[in-house]
Design a protein that fits this description.
Distance between the termini: 44 Å
Oligomer: single chain
Largest sheet: 5 strands, mixed, barrel
CATH topology: Rossmann fold
Number of domains: 1
Radius of gyration: 18 Å
Number of strands: 12
CATH architecture: 3-Layer(aba) Sandwich
Structural class: alpha/beta
Shape: globular
CATH superfamily: Nucleoside phosphorylase domain
Helix content: 25-40%
Length: about 260
């Protein structure tokens, strides 16, 4: 055993070691009871951390609930995209769900959530397309070689950027900082990370992108700014944030459908 630079005890080359368990076990367990549990025909999956957005989507365009195939709520849109919500927050929760989704045949994943701004010119309701995610969580280090960032799939990110860019919204491409410790974010970290182009902080992207890359499934991410760590403004109910999530959800669905058409 050795100690990494992050002072987390991991075996050398942990990302290359075979696992004693595999998500295919979950898929076999589910399909033994629900033979129809198959996501290979879906255009892709959108991860949502606010269940209210899934409910909005159901009211706006209609969705069909799927059985409890994974440890989350699944709804199928008329565009054949799966909305996944109700599984909690943080990279470990999201990463587990991605493993289960991929084992059932999911072909692409887009993660959508809220974030806190680390720069002054981002305000609630602004949108950020994830260019890279700083690996401040623990999950990604079990899936990828030691490194600073998790990277999204360039093709899927380009499609998502195109779909968001066609809307009249304040949007930018930037790096995000993923952390497990919501209440332990420090000014020293913000100063150091913004110096290398990090513009916001959230809790899932680095883990989701790492799991997807390990399983060789395209993944991308985007965020709505909900509050700020620059001039500390706690999050409050904001119609701009809800609208931003709706915009990103619509763009993600179109991007996943566009990916299928392109292929």
């Amino acid at each position: 055993m050795n100690v990494s630079r992050r002072d987390v005890v991991l075996p050398a080359g942990k990302h290359r070691l075979p696992s004693l368990t595999h998500p295919s076990e979950h898929a076999s367990y589910v399909r033994a009871r629900r033979p129809e549990a198959d996501l290979t025909r879906a255009a892709g999956v959108v991860l949502l951390y606010q269940s209210s957005i899934a409910k909005i989507a159901a009211r706006r365009c209609g969705t069909r609930p799927l059985d409890r195939w994974v440890s989350a709520d699944l709804h199928l849109t008329v565009d054949n995209v799966v909305l996944c919500s109700g599984f909690g927050r943080g990279a470990p929760a999201a990463g587990l769900i991605v493993e289960q989704l991929v084992a059932l045949g999911a072909r692409a994943v887009i993660t959508i959530g809220t974030a806190a701004a680390l720069v002054e010119d981002l305000v609630p309701g602004n949108l950020v397309i994830c260019r890279e995610a700083l690996r401040g969580e623990g999950l990604s280090h079990h899936y990828l070689a030691p490194g600073r960032y998790s990277a999204p799939d360039t093709g899927l990110t380009a499609l998502l950027t195109h779909e968001v860019g066609g809307l009249e919204s304040t949007v930018r491409s930037g790096r995000a900082w993923t952390t497990d410790a919501l209440y332990r974010e420090s000014a020293a970290e913000v100063q150091a990370f913004t110096a290398e182009g990090v513009v916001c902080v959230e809790m899932e992207a680095a883990g989701v992108l790492a799991v997807a890359r390990y399983r060789r499934v395209p993944a991308a991410g985007a965020f709505v700014i909900a509050d700020s760590l620059v001039q500390r403004t706690p999050r409050c109910d904001s119609p701009e944030v809800v609208e931003g999530l709706r915009v990103l959800l619509d763009a993600a669905v179109r991007a996943l459908c566009g990916r299928v058409v392109v292929r």
